[in-house]
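Predict structure. Input: Protein Bouncer-like isoform X2, 125 residues.
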Amino acid sequence: MGKLLVLCAVILAGISVGTALQCLKCSFTVFNIPCHTTTVTCEAEQVCATIQGRAAGHSLIMKRNCVDKDKCNKNETASYAGVSYITTYQCCEGDFCNSAATLPSAHFSLSLVLALLGIWFTRFL
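Output follows.
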């Protein structure tokens, strides 16, 4: 009976893994000045991104938000007040992965951990 309860808990926890992606949102900052961030929930087919605008080799603007997957790894050229700049979309797929404070090597896949836990419980309990 205990095995069954633990297995059900692991399955229920795994179901919540498929929930919408959470990202940080920073509406706008210039010259890498720290920006006030909020939490946003992405829509289907969106990922977290850090969007940077560069002109003459210098980072001018930066934003963080959810973006459509088709913008990832692409550059767009735009102009504002006579200054042309290139916008680059750096995308990632993990809750709050567009935070500059995270270390990629420190992330563990929740799905993998839950699957391993489920296997361990069914074999050893």
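The two ends are 10 Å apart (CA to CA).
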